[in-house]
UniProtKB/TrEMBL annotation:
UniProt keyword list: DNA-binding
Annotated DNA-binding residue span(s): 56-75
Pfam families, per database record: TetR_N (PF00440)
Protein name: TetR/AcrR family transcriptional regulator
Keyword Lipid biosynthesis in record: no
Occurrences of domain HTH tetR-type (ranges): 33-93
InterPro entries membership: Homeodomain-like_sf, HTH-type_TetR-like_transc_reg, HTH_TetR
PANTHER family: HTH-TYPE TRANSCRIPTIONAL REGULATOR RUTR, POSSIBLE TRANSCRIPTIONAL REGULATORY PROTEIN (PROBABLY TETR-FAMILY)
Domain of life: Bacteria
Ligase found in the keyword field: no
Amino acid sequence: MSTEIPQAGGAAAPLLGLLPTVGTPAPERADAARNRRKILDAAARIVSEDGPEAVTMNQVAHASGIGVGTVYRRFGDVSQLLWALLDDRERQFQEAYMSGPPPLGPGAPADARLDAFLDALVDRVGEQREILLAAHSAAPRARYHSGAYRVMHTHVALLIGRLRPGSDSTLLAHLLLAPFSPDVVHHLTVEQELSADRLKAGVRELLRLRA
């Protein structure tokens, strides 16, 4: 039985994983890469302003300045486009914390990198909250088996291991990432109306309660 997630217009598409497994993107011609970038950026603006349910292929084509036929050929339908958008943003996030400039990337002390990572994760989940929440509702446990989660967990566990040698860093990393589940972030930011800055401050305070 396949897991499905509703897409705009009431149809459904296979859910391959709550978050994408991010690898090296397939090579593209320069013009194709530019068009892809324009389409994804346009879709991201629409999601940010009006939510994922507002995304249509025609609207994305208009916002990007790319012909609607090209948008369909590249992404197939709205569901595939939204998953491509998640994959794109996850790829950017991984590149930032794995090889970007410090303090998020290598070159900063472990405590500074962990703070920067958690701050960036608040922004990452907040930016894509509605798409992630829809996926989470369809398959609540799939998040923990995705490639993206495994990479984040490994990164956090390594930083905790440097900060607390001898600790159960594998377990602590899971517990530290737990509040970033899309349903928790939705509850805090939408239902409790907490700002991203307050969430970041709260996570840092929690880390230091027993320091």
